[in-house]
Amino acid sequence: MNHVLLVDDEPMIVEGLYNMLNRIEELELIVWKAHSAMEGIQVMQNNRIDILITDVRMPGMSGIELIGHVRNQWHHCKVIFLSGYSDYEYLQSAFRQGAFDYLLKPAKYDTILDTLQRVIQNIHTEWQEQNVSAQAELHMQQAQNLLQKDFFQNVLGHKKLSVESIAEHIHHFQIPLSADLPLILMIGRVDRWPAGSQLRDKLLLEYAVNNIVEDYLQRFCQIATYSEQRYMIWFIQLREPVAPQDNVEEIRDLPKLHWYIGQLLEKIQQSIQQYIHLPVSFVLSKSNVNWPGIPNTYEEMCEWMRRGIGLDEKIILVEHADLLLSHYAEHELSPQEIRRHMNQLLHSLESGDNVSFHAGMTEFFRSVQKTVFLDYSLQMEIFCHLSTMFLSFMNARKITKEIGHTLELKYLANYGMFANWAAFEEYCSQLATLLFMNTETERKDQKKEIIDKVDAFVIKSLNKDISLDQLSSVFHLSPYYLSRLYHAEKGITLSERIKQLKIARSKELLLIDGMKIQEVSNELGFDSVSYFTKFFKKNVGVTPQEYKINNSG
Length: 553
What we know:
This protein is an alpha/beta fold.
């Protein structure tokens, strides 16, 4: 979102522009309005401003004077002047102040839309150019990170360091911080890496993320950055005040700096998403962390980040997150509820009910995501339940290796490999789909094998009176299931198949020279010749004797 501030002392102009800009949906604008420069300054002190559209001549303070205030507060803000005066002097003065454009009243809708599109594209281009130049400095930054790594590991861990030791390391490694001043900590997590990202790609992207963060913050901050396996960590202190300048308001205390960073985090997230296509979550500490308190603060922040899975990607937590944890704790799933869901999923998986399984899993994950902050131990319990269920199912069927050729199974052994809850859900869905496909193929093969064996047994046993009960006993299946299975696979009933085989065999035997009808009857397991004759005539249309006569040489 781009925040636009309108400043003009003519109410009709302000209201007209305000309504016009709010109707331009494709530009995704948040529009603020003010009827004087002083009112505009109050708006920009409490809200981020990306684009300022201001009149030149206003009572009390001109639009040109207003530029100094907005640039001091929001360094990257672009300015568009809107005025009824077309004289050369004002035009030159506006552009000397770095104005993006100068529009004459009354400006048409298309003119304003075109100007806004160009200014937003200009912001986009500036970020792209900065990211390209940032990559050229990557190797130098990586070397500096290696020198600082051991120091920051000790600071974040519980190794006790004296103020003198901290100051010595800061000086030796040229870290832009002071051992005598408190800090603000901020941690960031890439929620989802692009598919196929290698280590080098991730280092480049992390460096680009850090560049964007520093570009937004370094005007008022001294920043040192450190990256570990899961998170990027920023150590932030106030920058030493510069020499006083006209219209320049310095941030002189940590609470004010803390508020300023909190205001910018959404814009930082959006810039990272737009320019390097990464979803990134942030957690900001309290505003006055002392050096000895860094390890405990860092542990708390990591816990907040781990718990925030219900918010999916691009979480922002600023201070007082511990209060949120207790507020949402009452909504957490109980262990009994988790086990109930697991039992339902296991039943659906083992019974081969694909539809019920996926519906149940979706319902379960949605119920988990309703809990905005889920205790990390419960996260691990759910992960272990699901991993055990899938692995036990595959191992029992000896298909683990086969499934592993299609989907990487090492994720089932390490919860930390999933960036967020949504990624874990997607993985479980893919794995379940593979298992059901494999099970369906396996069942089809098993059914075909059973039916082939039934056919072979019937053919070998044509000299006996074969019944469905006898076959069900041989193959250890119920008569109903065996009959239904055979009909589903062959398209005819089992009794019809036995009859077909007996008729075909009797025709073969009747045409053998010297073979008597009595012998054929005995060979096919009939109790008497008369019963065989009735059976044959009913199904062939002639008696066995007539068949021999009609088909003999």
